[in-house]
Amino acid sequence: MTVHIHRDSWGIPSLSADSARELAYAQGRLAAQDRAWQLEMEHRRLRGTCAAVLGPPALDWDVLVRRAQLAQTARRCLLALDDATRDWVTAYTDGVNSALPEAARRAPEFVATGTPPGRWQPWVPLGVWLATHLFFAGLPAKLWRAEVTRRLGPEAVAWFTAGTPGTAGSNGWLLTGDRTATGAALLAGDPHRYAEDPGCYQQIRLVCPEFDVLGLAVPGVPGLPHFGHAGTVAWAITHAMADYQDLYRERLRRTDDGAEALGPNGWEPALHGLETVTVAGAAPVTIDVWETERGPVLFGGPEDAEAFSLRHVPRVTARLGFATLPRLLRARTVADVDAACEDWVEPVNVLLAADTEGGTLHRVAGRVPVRDPENRLRPVPAWDARHAWRPDAYEPAPRAEVAGGLAVMANERGLAAPLGVEFLPGHQHRRITELLRPRRDWTADETARVHGDTLSGGAPAMLDRLADLDGLSPAAEALAGRLLAWDRRMDADSHDAAAYAALRATCARRLAAHPTFAPLATLSTEPLGTRPEAPGPSSGRPGPRCPAPLRPWLELGPRIAFALETLLTPGVVPDLDPAALVREALEAVANEGADHGTWGERHRLALWRPLPSTNGPALDVPLAGDHDCVLATGSVPGVTDTSARCPVARYVWDLGDRTRSRWIVPLGAHGTADHPHHHDQTPLWAAGRLLPVETEPARLTHEASLAVGRDTAVPRTPAYERDVPGFGTVRLVPVDPVADLALLHGWVTEERAAFWGMVGAEPIEVLEIYEYLDALPSHHSYLVHRDGVPVGLFQTYDPAADEVGAHYPVAPGDLGVHLLLAPPRGPLRRGFTGGLIPCLIEFVFADPRVRRIVAEPDLGNGPAVERALRTGLLLGPVIELPDKRARLAFLTREAARERAPAAWERAPAAREPGAAARERGSARG
Asked: Lowest-pLDDT range, 114-123, 333-342, 602-611, 863-872?
């Protein structure tokens, strides 16, 4: 089997393989080759290990994501996948692991931080997806609305009902053949997200006998989940602005044997654990991790008046919707796309699709739970049964016909209105419709005019106030006249747009300083307020402070900035005279005598880079557009004119001829700063141009052909291998927690393995245990094979890093061991343990640092104690461990040599315990 990699003149890859599974492997491999550091950071973001590399600035995110337990949720969702989808995702991560070590050696970020790349397990793409979309349901806005209600009263919430671009974005539109020059549909748009380097989308084409699809991939996730063109059908999404996550106000208390949370029926058990977060350049931080019946506690604890837990569908159902992704690749019609998205869960999107037969689709895809309307508005009390979710009950997904040959989606209060609370004001939706409706001869090339439209939708709210002002100073009169004559376009070379931005910023700052809003000025840094309706006293304790990653949603400045249109409407805010405020702002701007330059001089792209020093020079390109334009290069009036959000891709899918399709991203195809295809698309993107989609073989350059076996998994190097005459070949292979889960779960949950303490454990629990062990530098697990058949589980550990070390004086060179023999498949031959145990001893002592083996068999496990005696271990004292009474047993290197001198005369074939695990780069942040 061979995978071929071709690239066009912009370095955009095209992959071809003999099967969908091999293609998934190739996509993962290519993502690692082109975006190694980006994949490493995504991996760390979902596991909460960024601070181990980036230091204290990343600690707050790590704490939040660990408390949200996203990694555990991703594991659950992986295990719930159907076999075919799980195998497909596994092939992708196998591809990542095959290329990541070598790619990391070439990436400057790994060198600069001394970071080994983490090994990807199959659940990691699901975790990347969860971490990326954690705040997409407006979860922080519930905290904002609750505090506005408490501090200003419930009527004040309506002043800020326009959704902020911080959790929204994306335009999309569909033109049927009746409105195009070719008679075939066009599907176009541009997702708006935070600008990152490397970019959050990767242009790619995926080809195998089952499908030929091109589109925008999310690095770290297989397939093309958002935007794709499969030849006969194309699809695209925007964020629906639906509310599908809930925050619960919790009361927690510690008990003698754990913790409890106040639920509808009184105090109920809560889960509690401790996790340690490693921080580069600082001491490790130990955090509490809580979970109630509602879900993981994001912040707060028993010492606070209240805590806040998160409930969302993937955590409740172990479903994320990943089975949709391979089905989309195989889609041929809009009916196929529609069916594929029936199982989609999160995030909730508005979907457009069209096919070559004239079919169209306009629907919402995703799961919104049915619950009390109050749940959507603010955090709700966990102890009130009204706010519980109804089991397996979800709101119907709205859908609509594509009327008049045109459908537009732009995060407005439209198709998804029944499912959400805050939406964008609708400027983009109205402007796109206004531009598209008059013509019936659209082409793929001409749609760039729509993508690049700079008309400010929010400007009239302020400029209309100027027309009514009189008695102005000469300078203010001149500025007012100039702005009233302005064409209201936020063009990069416009001096008037810059002057308008200065006036708008001054108005926003003056509004934020108005006494009405003073109670909200320090909201993001103060303890959140609590309400008294919970049974029992709160002991006067303050509420918790909002975690740092959520605080931007509680900042007054941005909230004022995006509510300007409402706040400047006469009569909305008591004791506020909008005309007087605009007058004062106009006089201040006019009389300061500053030359505001052009909008493009003020409006630049601010890229997020976790390690700026390794990403080359900052981009410094003048930008047109603004947050209320179709060209949504967002600024935050009164806070900053720079753009942290922008169209992170643009696309036009032509259903008549795919080669007429167009696309572009802000940076380029490659993720390394000094690569020629890292920033090469930036000038064209900033100018509003799109690149042609290259599919003709003559226009592509062959880069590589890779031989791929049917089993795409990266082979695990044996940690030990020995041919034992008369017994067979003994091999020790490092445990892969996911790949070996079925085998491990079958062994450790049997009654015969009761001494291992996992009888009755669910697969997810066994997986978490062995992934936890895999992440520890002090513990290692191996499958023991005899002639290729797994016959046992062998574990080694550093007693100083284990509970055992607290019960005896640990000596330098001690190494603890555990051995579980597999259930026999038939009668065991005599001498089985006699042939196996010497090999295990030889393996352990192959590490010259090991001076003594330490075992601690359960006193009730007679066979294990007898085996220790037969092996030559000397019995030590009885110790009381948390889950058993055990007998210590010891075997020194000298005693082992005396017992089996012949074994020590052979050339050692073993490697030091843990070497294989270190080589495959376990993520141990």
From this structure: 863-872
Q: Which of the two residues, 884 and 672, has the higher pLDDT score? A: 672
The string of DSSP codes covering 90-133 is HHHHHHHHHHHHHHHHH-HHHHHHTPPPPPPPTTHHHHHHHHHT
Token pair for residue 176? 């049927």
Give pTM, 2 decimals. Answer: 0.91
Q: What angle do CA 109, 113, 115 make, to 5 degrees?
A: 90
What would the pLDDT profile of 438-477 be if each residue is shown by its tens digit? Answer: 999 999 999 989 999 999 999 998 898 898 899 999 999 9
Map tokens 């198709």 to a residue: 415
Amino acid at 572: V
Q: Which of 66, 49, 42 is nearest to 547 (CA)?
A: 66
**How far apart (Å, rounded) are the C-alpha atoms in residues 866 and 897?**
20
CA angle centred on 682, ends 681 and 688, rounded to 5°: 95
Burial of 894 (0-12, 13-18, 19+ CB in 10 A): exposed
Q: What is the pLDDT of residue 866?
A: 75
CA-based nearest residue to 792, from 813, 817, 771: 817
Backbone angles phi, psi at 8, to 5 degrees: -90, -170
Map residue 714 onto helix, strand or coil: coil
Give the C-alpha separation, 549 to 64, whole Å: 8
Length of the chain, please? 925
Q: Find out whether 888 and 814 touch, Cβ atoms under 8 Å.
A: no
Rounded CA separation 45/854 (Å): 37
Residue 45 to residue 124: CA distance in whole angstroms: 11
DSSP letters, 396-412, are ---B---GGGEEEESSS
Among residues 239, 70, 237, 233, the alpha carbon closest in space to that of 163 is found at 239
Task: Kindly tell me if the per-residue pLDDT of 515 is higher than 80.
Answer: yes
> Which are the contacts of 237, defined by CB distance < 8 A and separation ≥ 6?
170, 172, 226, 227, 349, 350, 351, 352, 365
Q: Is 332 exposed, middle or buried (0-12, 13-18, 19+ CB in 10 A)?
A: middle
Q: What is the CA radius of gyration of the chain?
A: 31
In contact, 668 and 680? CB cutoff 8 Å: yes
In whole angstroms, what separates CA 83 from the centre of its chain?
23
Contacts of residue 383, defined as CB under 8 A and 6 or more positions apart, other chains included, come to 251, 262, 263, 264, 534, 535
Q: Is 318 left (phi over 0), alpha (psi -120 to 50) or beta?
A: left
Say how many Å lie between the first and final Cα of the chain, rounded.
Answer: 36
Q: Walk me through the domains of the chain, giving residue ranges and CATH numbers.
A: 720-920 (3.40.630.30)
Tokens standing for residue 828: 């065991």
pLDDT 10s digits, 47-99: 999 999 999 999 999 999 999 999 999 999 999 999 999 999 999 999 999 99
Look at residue 883 and tell me whether its pLDDT is greater than 90. no
In angstroms, the CA 613 to CA 188 distance is: 36
Residues 770 and 766: their CA atoms lie apart, in Å, by: 6
* Whether 488 contacts 459, CB under 8 Å: yes
Tell which wins on pLDDT, 858 or 194.
194
